[in-house]
Automatic annotation (TrEMBL), chain A:
It comes from the Bacteria. GO terms for molecular function: ATP binding; ATP hydrolysis activity. InterPro entries: AAA+_ATPase, ABC_transporter-like_ATP-bd, P-loop_NTPase. CDD domains: ABC_drug_resistance_like. Keywords: ATP-binding, Nucleotide-binding, Transport. Residues 5-235 form the ABC transporter domain. Belongs to the ABC transporter superfamily. This is ABC transporter ATP-binding protein. SUPFAM superfamilies: P-loop containing nucleoside triphosphate hydrolases. PANTHER family: ABC TRANSPORTER, ATP-BINDING PROTEIN (PTHR43335). Pfam families: ABC_tran.
Amino acid sequence: MTTSVTVRALTVRHRRTVALNTVDLDFRTGVHGLLGPNGAGKTSLIRVLATVAAPAAGRIELLGRDVGAHRERAAVRRALGYLPQEFGHYPGFTVREFVSYVAWLKEMPAARVPTAVERAVERVGLADRIDTKMKTLSGGMVRRAGIAQAIVNEPELLLLDEPTAGLDPEQRVEFRALLRDLGATSTVIVSTHLVEDVAAACQEVTLIESGRIAYRGTTAELTALGGEHGRDSDGNAIERGYTTALRAHRASLAEAAR
Amino acid sequence: MSATHGNPTPPHGNPTHRDGNPTPPHGNPTFPPLNPTPPPVNPTPRRGSPTPWHVTDAQAASYATGSAPETDAWSLEKHVESCGDCAARVSAAVRATTAGPELAAIRASILTAATTPRAVTGRLGELDARGGLRLSARGGVPHFAARASRLLWAAGPAVRGAWMVAVVLVGAAAVALAYGAGYGAARQALLAVAPVLPLAGVAVSYGRHADPMYEIGASTPSGGLRLLLTRTAAVLAVSVPLLTAAGAVLPGGSGGPGAAAWLLPGLALTLATLALGSFVGCRAAAGTLSTAWLLAVAGPVVGRPGTGSLPLAADLVRLLSGAAAQGAWAAGAVVCAGLLVLRRRSFDLMEPR
């Protein structure tokens, strides 16, 4: 259980707006949920951790390497899996070609690629569609192909931005099982706005609001927080815990501002 | 489904059973005499659902007609995976609907296809080394050709799309103008357009606007400058021979620039696009530089209307002919290449929006 992601005083800006405000975070092996309202800064954090966006300030260490240096960054990227919130594909590619192409981009040894591609596609439940053209797949299947490209290199650090969007309930259940499986050996960071994804698959929760960390704890702790407060009509325990933690964070901010 | 959500209610979710009624659905007073299942028997008690239940005829019927609420349909689907009696009841209900004859026809055709001997329909080469079925039916295209085509796709999205068509059309149009219409300045026209075609190719090959897999690529060690250079090379590999060959078969006119005169300006402008693209993105850079080139070539013509094609030729001569002009383009190419080397790390991250 070594620390694979260390973030210190991270600030991310989009033009004038501050997406993340001096955030400190650590992630270890396991599945971590990134929860928060839309526009809270989840995607900004995932993009910076995926090394595709630059922070305005702060230090990021991934897998023991400082990603500010080019050589180190290339090494990190070989061990990285990333599913962007929105991603495209070349419509003429089959699922196999799509995943193989990303394996090639990730500089996997050519001899390992065919079996790794088949394994990744099988893990997301698309084995029967592996030679189907991407453009004929449904939205949920495209998303699963996206997950397959992210895990094809068995990444040490896996970043998934809203991976369950477009999946039907049964596929979500299967996907959460896959997440738990991946989290046994890798650091998996999943951004989602679905509290039940976190409840079912994540060991730890980080709650982000308006560019700041509102809450950190285990899933059990967040559930317990919801058990103490509120009534059954407010949803299940973890949903109440989410609301309680958010309100406590807002109250402390208001207190500090006074 | 519900069990994994930690939802304590039994999985039927039907509003008529939800109001704290502990009896299972088949205990519903409306249906007990009609229910063929013996009520107390539950062959597969499901984990996490303390009150066993079975699909009633009414539920099966509403599922079959598609009128069941979504949550009920999910519960039912999960249940019939493990309960043969209910599965049979739901199947019967579905067969009773209008979909019944259609399903029967599909079943029959699948059975026919599956029982036809493989030796008759199968072909040699359909099984690959892994023993799995492969799409060998792509007109018998050998495997390595498929691989090569993927590499081509990867190397240059431009090479497969509208850009390729545009390059061929420009070359063909110039030849047609010269020999079909007897237009004397066809080579000059081609030379005036040729240097911006690679720029257009770069613009449609790389970047957040052009490449659907841009963000995924940017997170990989091959992303960034390496991918951009690979794709630029693919664009040049197509456009240089095509356009130069087209220029060579055109009548040169008297004292006009040679067919290869556009090569250095084309290279310089391409490198300038990459260098400027490191600041503003490749599409904006290609647009800016193409416009600048076309204005430099055609601007004077627009300013002096009515003098025919001669000013175009004169401006091209000024821009392309002679050691001084070509030397300037070479120097420009070197400067842009140097700037690109200095800016190489900027492609490691996603380009500005």
